[in-house]
Amino acid sequence: MERIALIIAYEGFQEVEYAHTRAAVEEAGINVQVASDQVGVAHSANHELSVSVDVLVEDIVLGAHDGVFLIGGPGALEHLDTNAVKKLLQRAYEQGLWIGAICISPRILLKAGLLDGKRMTGWNDDKVLTALAPVYGAEYLEQPVIIEDRIITAEGPAAATLFGRAIAEVLAIERSL
Q1: All domains in the chain, ordered by first residue
Q2: Which of 4, 5, 88, 167 has its Cα between 20 and 30 A from that of 29?
Q3: Rounded Cα distance, 48 and 8, in Å
Q4: CA 35/CA 57 separation, integer angstroms
Q5: What is d(CA 118, CA 105) in angstroms, rounded to the nearest whole number?
Q6: Residue 123: how many other CB atoms lie within 10 Å
């Protein structure tokens, strides 16, 4: 059975992105481990959802996972745009795991150098991705979800279920090989 890590900000994760992504992958029979920058109970941006954190980002055992994915929200850049998260994603990608991010979190993939030469999407209401993507060698496209080279990026809350389904689909394809 597949297992993924969903990484959320300890304070300020986007509740729809987390809940809908998790529901879609669990519906497909995938186990979810919740990781964050702190242990305890993480809180969504509007404090309407609290989630128990299973593991610190730096304690994720990559060999026990098929993918590592970042959830967005206003706390993502403050809590997850760190060397620990970037190194984890780089190692996961180098080891052949699926990685991805939704909403504002694809900016972390950019800064980690993981989207060079790739198409990507994400939250762009402030037009930062339009400017930032070319600096890091990526091509920003306005699409709900983009899957490219073991990386999945998604726009935001409206694409959360599609993001979760994309994760489930790529893992199902690998399982069948």
Answers
A1: 3-103+156-176 (3.40.50.880)
A2: 88
A3: 15
A4: 5
A5: 16
A6: 23
- Which residues have CB under 8 Å from 5's CB, separation 6+? 32, 33, 34, 35, 55, 60, 65, 67, 68, 69
Cα–Cα distance measured from residue 94 to residue 133, given in angstroms and rounded to the nearest whole number: 21
Please give the pLDDT value at position 177: 74
Identify the pLDDT of residue 46: 94
Taking residues 130-148, report their average pLDDT: 96
pTM for the whole thing?
0.97
Rg for the chain, CA atoms, rounded = 14
